[in-house]
Every structure is written in structure tokens, then in C-alpha cells.
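Propose amino acids for all 198 sites.
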């Protein structure tokens, strides 16, 4: 038995995995972990575990959207489901929705697209940049019709909808507002309930 004083990290375990930039799509898809890991052309991005509030917001939205989807023939999934944007590019949005549960985009190990993607902004500068800028451009590029950005720090929900091939400037909803979705016009969610989910 080793004493805590002499414990050292097991660096050799890292040699069991490919070097950054050398990961194949198959190696990424075979990776088993309880962490959120996204894939970009040979590189894996390991993200911090979500906070309690982050998870509460995801749970609130997924329940609300799932009730809607069940009534309209759609399907909702939460983080952990991979979304293939293009060859060698995968993301794990906090929530994805397809309006047609029988869509050809829906596959067992990953989806090849979505009608709606939602990200709850994490608080680090790198995470904020990824959710507010990078993913916006990526989701726009692959034609995801609507992208919601839930920003608990700013207490806003931004709804971006495709207009042609680009997202419109988007509707910004604050704490006293009701989120309205051009994609799902029957849906109405109070921003305060989203932000204060517990």
C-alpha cells in the first residue's frame, strides 16, 4: 500500500491515448468517460464538469422541451449526446431537439444535425468565447435552424434563428421576459424560471 506522501500522478496512463492532433474519429467515438469531450479534427477538448445551477437550467429546459416534443412528434436529448457537425467535428450541446423523432439525422451513437441547439454559458472566458462565438458560427454553418444561448451571468436568453444561411441578430430576452421561439411558436418560457431553476 502506498502512502499519500509518495503518491504521484500516473503519467504513463496518458500514453494509452493518441497525442493531441492525432486522434481519429473512431478513437474519439470509442472514448468512454463521464466528462464532456468534444472533437475537432484530431484534437479532443475536455470541458469542466457543469455546476449545480448549470445542470438545473438544463433540467428545466429539457423537461419543458420534452413535454412539447412529445406532443408534436419531436425528440429532445441532453448533453452527452454527440452532434456530428461535419467530418472530424463533434460537439455536445447542452440540449438538442429534432421536430421529427423519425428524422434521418437521428442515429444511435450521434446525431448528424438538429433543428434546435441550446448552450448554457459556462463562466470561464474560454467557455464563454466557445458558446457565444465559436459554436454560433459552427451551428450556423451546418444549418441548425435555431440556437439558444442561456447566459446566467448576464441573466439573458438569446434566440438566434437562421435567415437564409446566417443567424439573424437574434432576440434577447431578459429576466422579466418570456422566451419566444420562431421555430417552436407555441412554446413560451419565462426567463426568470429558466434562470432560477433548482
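Proposal:
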Amino acid at each position: 500500500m502506498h502512502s499519500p506522501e509518495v503518491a504521484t500522478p500516473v503519467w504513463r496512463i496518458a500514453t494509452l491515448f493518441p497525442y493531441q492532433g492525432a486522434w481519429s474519429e473512431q478513437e474519439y467515438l470509442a472514448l468512454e468517460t463521464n466528462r464532456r469531450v468534444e472533437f475537432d479534427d484530431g484534437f479532443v477538448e475536455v470541458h469542466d464538469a457543469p455546476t449545480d445551477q448549470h445542470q438545473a437550467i438544463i433540467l428545466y429546459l429539457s423537461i419543458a422541451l420534452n413535454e412539447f416534443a412529445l406532443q408534436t412528434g419531436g425528440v429532445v436529448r441532453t448533453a452527452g449526446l454527440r452532434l456530428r457537425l461535419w467530418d472530424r467535428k463533434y460537439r455536445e450541446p447542452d440540449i438538442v431537439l429534432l421536430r421529427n423523432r423519425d428524422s434521418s439525422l437521428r442515429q444511435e451513437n450521434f446525431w448528424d444535425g438538429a433543428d434546435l441547439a441550446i448552450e448554457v454559458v459556462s463562466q470561464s472566458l474560454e467557455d464563454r468565447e466557445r458558446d457565444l462565438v465559436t459554436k454560433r458560427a459552427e451551428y450556423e454553418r451546418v444549418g441548425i435552424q435555431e440556437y439558444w444561448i442561456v447566459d446566467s451571468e448576464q441573466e439573458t436568453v438569446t434566440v438566434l434563428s437562421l435567415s437564409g444561411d446566417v443567424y439573424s441578430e437574434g432576440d434577447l430576452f431578459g429576466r422579466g421576459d418570456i422566451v419566444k421561439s420562431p421555430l417552436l411558436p407555441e412554446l413560451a418560457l419565462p426567463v426568470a424560471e429558466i434562470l432560477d431553476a433548482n
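The chain has a mean pLDDT of 91. The first helix runs from residue 25 to 30.
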